Amino acid sequence: MSDSGALRTIVIKESVLDKNRTIARANRQWFDERRCLALNLLSSPGAGKTSLLERTLTDLADSRRMAVIVGDLATDNDARRLNDRGAAIVQINTLDICHLDADMVARACSTLTEVEPEVCFIENVGNMVCPASFDLGEHARVVLLSVTEGEDKPVKYPTLFRTADLVVITKCDIADAVGFDRDAAIRSVRAVCPEADVIEVSARTATGLNAWYDWIEKRRSHAGFGPSPVEHGTQE
Ligand SMILES: Nc1nc2c(ncn2[C@@H]2O[C@H](COP(=O)(O)OP(=O)(O)OP(=O)(O)O)[C@@H](O)[C@H]2O)c(=O)[nH]1
Ligand SMILES: [Mg+2]
Known about the structure:
By secondary structure, the chain is of the alpha/beta class. The chain has 9 helices and 7 strands.
């Protein structure tokens, strides 16, 4: 057989991920230079990312300058829900792409230079598979698991949960109504990501939100971006 008829395989995935990693490193440097904690929020569709952020933007409006980069296939529904809460909101429509990538985040960051956020939340596209592979330049990954979606999701989608720094169990107000087995869910989380912190919240009733806010401050300190909110308040 001649060479011209030979089968050729091109490995796209690695080159795409290599390019993404390079841009993600630049994004992390961009956040570091501004002492801005970047958090990548990931979950299945509808687990409660936007609802948690709605509460967070309102509750922390007086103590932190915040921005949200929000990814969706289509619509600016989430951006409109998050608007008017004192934070800068940038909507990215990914069209047919099922995840955010570092280049999309870099372009969103270029619109935030005047804002100088201290915390930048990145709400990824609701999807438990594709977003896991794409570093966006975040400092930490927050993976949400709602009580309605099944206690075994962490072991069924280990690639995503393995990368979590924090697992937030959401919609705890309806845990009893849907027969949520908390112990089984925690076992499932621990089987995949034994080191991750776990917080249980309800954006509906505000249960557990202080633990979430404390965790954000702890991560800011961990990244060397203090001061604490009290010191922050007295400096102004
Ligand atoms: N009972 C209850 N419902 C909640 C809670 N948080 C969110 N929900 C509901 O869950 C649905 C989805 O919430 P969203 O915040 O839009 O979820 P999301 O993860 O941002 O969804 P996508 O962006 O589409 O992936 C909405 O109907 C919310 O009202 C909660 O703490 N308790
Ligand atoms: Mg959302």
